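in:
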């Protein structure tokens, strides 16, 4: 399926790109489709390029030596992932897996390298993408290093909430929340039950409604936002 200018403009970081550069990207990018739970790339494999999500959700995960999964992030429509090829020619630092049915746009590695060297406007766009990746890693490092498990769960709830019918809703399973917070499902379920008893959240099948989001904020994180 050919990549269109409209496809590229639906990605926020590319929306203000000049038409000539969008034409260039549309010619170079390829479309890929993945089913839920299908692997997009594996940790250690040679990067094939950088990826933009046109539709669906993708989770970026690392698997520890004991088989425990740590989710680094969950990326939704309009986001970019797999940015390490911008400056690192080593293997992928993590796995990428489709969380839902996804439609992706991929800028191949060789074309990425050419644009970085020969198109200063697109090089700046790619640098902005990489800066977002670094900010995400900094957030994850702070969360895992200084927050309690309960605080990490609360932070994940706030970070992954979306407005749906005038409500703040988190559409993640307990297992996915556990992966993101660096804990196990039982701990997440127990903590959510406590929050529900306090009328901070409402638990429904397949989703969590945030009734009192301010109760989930940490003072130290609120000051930084």
């Amino acid at each position: 399926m050919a990549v269109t200018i409209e496809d590229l403009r639906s990605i926020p970081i590319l929306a203000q790109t000049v038409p000539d550069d969008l034409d260039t990207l549309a010619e170079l990018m390829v479309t890929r489709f993945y089913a839920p739970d299908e692997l997009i790339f594996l940790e250690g494999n040679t990067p094939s390029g950088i990826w933009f999500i046109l539709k669906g959700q993708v989770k970026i995960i690392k698997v520890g030596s004991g088989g425990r999964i740590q989710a680094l992030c969950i990326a939704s429509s309009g986001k970019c992932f797999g940015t390490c090829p911008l400056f690192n020619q080593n293997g992928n630092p993590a796995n990428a897996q489709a969380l839902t049915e996804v439609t992706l746009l991929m800028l191949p590695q060789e074309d990425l390298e050419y644009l970085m060297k020969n198109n200063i406007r697109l090089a700046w766009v790619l640098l902005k993408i990489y800066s977002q990746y670094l900010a995400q890693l900094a957030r994850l490092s702070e969360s895992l290093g200084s927050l309690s498990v309960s605080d990490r769960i609360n932070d994940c709830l706030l970070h992954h909430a979306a407005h749906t019918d005038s409500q703040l809703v988190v559409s993640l399973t307990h297992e996915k929340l556990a992966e993101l917070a660096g804990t196990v499902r039982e701990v997440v379920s127990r903590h959510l039950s406590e929050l529900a008893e306090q009328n901070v959240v409402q638990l429904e099948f397949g989703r969590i409604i945030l009734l009192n989001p301010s109760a989930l904020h940490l003072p130290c994180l609120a000051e930084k936002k």
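note: Residues 5-145 form a domain with the Jelly Rolls fold (CATH 2.60.120.10).
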